[in-house]
Design goal:
Structural class: alpha+beta
Largest sheet: 7 strands, antiparallel
Radius of gyration: 22 Å
Shape: globular
Strand order of the largest sheet: 15-12-14-13-17-18-16
CATH architecture of the largest domain: 2-Layer Sandwich
Helix content: 25-40%
Bound molecules: flavin-adenine dinucleotide
Length: 456
């Protein structure tokens, strides 16, 4: 049966669950933050575990591919459909339970990270993973991408906080499990192995005190050596972020800041914990910066802390003014090699006459490399693609990974062979097919060789 007829049949079988085929849905849910757009035939809005189970089961029975979607903030095309239904989790956004003694919270997968954070405040708790998209992205999307964020240096990434999950497998079976066996594989699987309904996440007591500091760290490559030398003193911040000099200029223009040092890169630190710990860490930082003559800007209260965080969070919107197309990679390398990587990246970008900006969670080894361009300038786009290939080849040669947190999706799948052997890729493929034999979940993602289901 043609896909169109199968979709109609599926719509009938899912009676009672919002099933939208109007263009305002199929267009809006057809792309993610990469700006790539795919074919979306319908958008389904399950509101409960039973709705989600029925959706998966009937999609399989009618052979309709299914693309799970949280908020669509993904940077690798993970939720971009390729013919079939988009399953939006936005109506499954409730807190299902809080166990203060066990320090866990159970949420539906469509809850927005920030809504969870706000819910926890009154209990004196917090959920550490904080992707810069936290005001929009969902916990389901965060689990599926194993999201990191600025606090990952101290607190680690999403995987560490998943206590258990309720998810639907390709047979439409509900599985409730701790992250072991197949359930563990779902974390970071980019929606290719199952549909997550809910998760019980570990939470922590909110730290008593914070210190937030911006340090002018000199030339771009130099900042990383400074960071390494600082960490070698035993200094342990919760946040260690890098903003290169061009990106900082862009942020300064965007926020109309005065006082940032032209030509200097910046390191953004936060320390948290007990008052004594934080003051001890702050003392180490001040003494280090004092000895090296580095300029520090310290937030004196919560309002100033918010201002510094807003500055860090302005990086992405400020870059948006530099080009309508962002070629955005998030390679990962050991901290000790980031300095040489930053210099190499800028050299190659200028050789290819590309406008390049680098920032990222450097404490976690994660660099965001952005080429700001315009997809209508085809020669420049071709040079940007040459840049990406050279970047990945170089990073793979340095023992790094193609993605620190944004995933493989559709944007990086052709490069997987640079970091995995054929035998490793074959094994990954066989696991995927074992868990999803009919290729129902997110077909065409992660594997380049994936035969596209015959959708026409
Ligand atoms: C400005 C900006 C800043 C960002 N900063 C960071 C950052 O600091 N750290 C970081 O890690 N990422 C960051 N990202 C990337 C993105 O926000 C994360 O990957 C996020 O986890 C995606 O969540 P989402 O809800 O938007 O998921 P979507 O984009 O909707 O989906 C992402 C993937 O998850 C799958 N998925 C979603 N929900 C489910 C579910 N319930 N069950 C199974 N699979 C599911 C989808 O199929 C898809 O493959 C940023 C993005 C933007 C736009």
């Amino acid at each position: 049966m043609e896909l169109e007829n199968r979709i109609k049949e599926l719509g009938k079988r899912l009676r009672g669950i919002p099933f939208r085929r109007e263009a305002r849905y199929t267009v809006s849910y057809g792309f993610d933050a990469t700006g790539r757009r795919g074919r979306c035939d319908a958008v389904v809005f399950p509101q409960s575990l039973e709705d989600l189970r029925r959706t998966v089961m009937e999609a399989r029975r009618t052979s309709v591919p299914l693309f799970m979607r949280g908020a669509g903030t993904g940077f690798s095309g993970g939720s971009v459909p390729a013919g079939g239904i988009v399953v939006s989790t936005e109506n499954m956004n409730r807190v299902l339970g809080l166990d203060i003694g066990a320090r866990t919270v159970t949420v539906e997968s469509g809850i927005v990270n920030n809504d969870l954070q706000e819910y926890l405040v009154e209990y004196g708790l917090f959920y550490p993973p904080d992707p810069a998209s936290f005001r929009v992205s969902t916990i389901g999307g965060n689990i599926a991408e194993n999201a990191g964020g600025p606090r990952a240096y101290k607190y680690g990434v999403t995987r560490r906080y998943v206590k258990s999950m309720v998810w639907i497998d390709a047979e439409g079976e509900v599985i409730e499990s701790e992250p072991r066996g197949p359930t563990a594989l779902l974390i970071g699987a980019e929606g290719t192995l199952g549909a997550i309904y809910s998760a019980t996440m570990r939470v922590l007591p909110r730290p008593e005190a914070f210190r937030t500091v911006l340090v002018a760290a000199g030339e771009d490559g130099e900042a990383m050596h400074t960071a390494s030398a600082l960490l070698a003193t035993g200094f342990t911040p919760s946040v260690l972020e890098f903003i290169d000099s061009k990106t900082m200029r862009c942020v300064s223009e965007y926020r109309e800041l005065s006082g940032t040092i032209e030509g200097s890169s910046y390191l953004f630190f936060e320390m948290d914990g007990s008052v004594e710990d934080v003051e001890m860490q702050y003392g180490m930082l001040s003494s280090f910066c004092g000895k090296r003559g580095l300029t520090m800007l310290t937030a004196r209260d919560d309002d100033e802390r918010d201002i510094l965080w807003e500055l860090r969070r302005s990086v992405s919107p400020s870059l948006a003014r530099k080009g309508i197309t962002k070629v955005n990679e998030d390679v990962s390398l050991p901290l000790g090699r980031l300095g040489e990587a930053v210099s190499w990246i800028h050299d190659v970008a200028s050789e290819l006459e590309l406008d390049c900006y680098i920032f990222g969670h450097c404490g976690d080894g994660n660099l965001h490399v952005n080429i700001m361009t315009d997809r209508r300038r085809s020669a420049e786009m071709e040079r940007a693609m040459v840049f990406v290939e050279r970047l990945f080849t170089h990073v793979a040669g340095m023992g790094g990974t193609l993605s620190g947190e944004h995933g493989i999706g559709i944007t990086k799948k052709e490069f997987l062979g640079m970091v995995y052997s054929p035998a490793e890729l074959e094994l990954q493929y066989r696991i995927m097919r074992a868990m999803d034999p009919d290729n129902i979940f997110n077909p065409g993602k992660y594997f380049d060789r994936e035969e596209q289901r015959d959708v026409h």
